[in-house]
Amino acid sequence: MDPLDLGILRELSRDQIVWFGRLDPRFSAAGIARRLHVDRATIAARLHSWERQGFLRGHEVVPSPLAFGASIAGGNLRVEAVHRKPRVLEDIGLVPGVISAVDHVGPWVALLYAFETRDGLERSRRLLVKLTGVEEATPCVPFLAPEPTVTPTPLDWRILQGFREDPRRPLRMVAQSVSVSTKTLVRRMERLVRGRAVWYLPLLDFSRYGKATMTRFIVTLRPGKDPKAAADAAARIVPGLSLLVDTASLIGANPLVPPMLDIGAHLESVGHAEDVQRELAAVDSVADVEVLFPRRFYLYRGWFDEHIELAIARTE
Known about the structure:
It contains 12 helices and 12 strands. By secondary structure, the protein is α+β, with helices and mostly antiparallel strands. It has a domain at about 210-295: Ribosomal protein S6/Translation elongation factor EF1B (Alpha-Beta Plaits, 2-Layer Sandwich). Strands 2, 3, 4, 5, 6 and 12 form a 6-stranded antiparallel beta sheet that branches. A hairpin with a 3-residue loop joins strand 3 and strand 4 (about 110-115). The protein is globular.
C-alpha cells in the first residue's frame, strides 16, 4: 500500500462519522499535510490522481443531520441477486431518510439513515423491503454522532446550498454565486467543519483502486470482554489499517447489538484478508469475524437538499 495514499485515507476518516468523511481536504489540506510530513501541493496532486483513475468519483459537502434536530442510524439490505444491485442502488435514493450507502462485493449493502422519529425510521426500512430486488432490510441501529458545536447562519445555509448545486465547483465560483469573497467562504466553511455542522464525504470507488484490496472486518466480541484490549490486538495484527472503531462508541448501550469492532484495512489480496481473518479469530476476546469487501460509496442528495431549502425558507 502506498504510504501517502494510506495516510490520506486515514486523515479523511479522522474523527470519522460514516467511515470516510468529515475533514474536507480543501479546508484541511494544510493540517493533513503537516501530519503526514509532506507539503500541501503533494496532497492536492494525489487527490487529483485519484480522480483521474476513477478511485475518487467525486465528493459531497453536506450538513450534519443533527444540525436539523435529526438523528442517524445504520442498517443493511440484501439483494435477491447481484445482477439486480445496480437498480436497487438507484432506487434506494427514492426512500425518505436514506442518505448514503456502501456497496460491498456480494449481496449486502450498508445504509445510513437520517430520521426524526423511530416510527419514521421503521417506515423507511419497510419501504426498502418493497423495492424490486430487495430480499431483506435489517433492523436499524441508531448511532451516537457528535453534536454540532456551531449553528449555521442564514449566510452559511446559502453557502451550503451553493456547494450542493455542484460540489466540484472551484471555491471562487461558489463564493461568487452567494456574493461573498473566497476568503469569507473559506473562513465560514472552516468554522462549520471544525464545529461538526458540515461533513465532507468522498465518493470512493475501491473497484478502481489497483494498489490494494479494501477489506472490512466486523469483529464480534465475547460478552464481558474489553473492547479496548481487542482493538489494541487488532491494531497489531492488521496491516494497512485505515479505520478501527469500537462500535459501542457509536451506538451506545444498545442491548440488541453485541460489542463489535469495525475495522477497515488495505491489504495485498483476498487471500491476505483470509489470513488476517484467521489471526483475528484466534484472539481470546473475539467470538466471530466477518469479512466484507467494500466496492463503492454512494450519497443520496434528496434529504439534505430538502432540509437546506427548509432552513433557508425559515431564516428568510
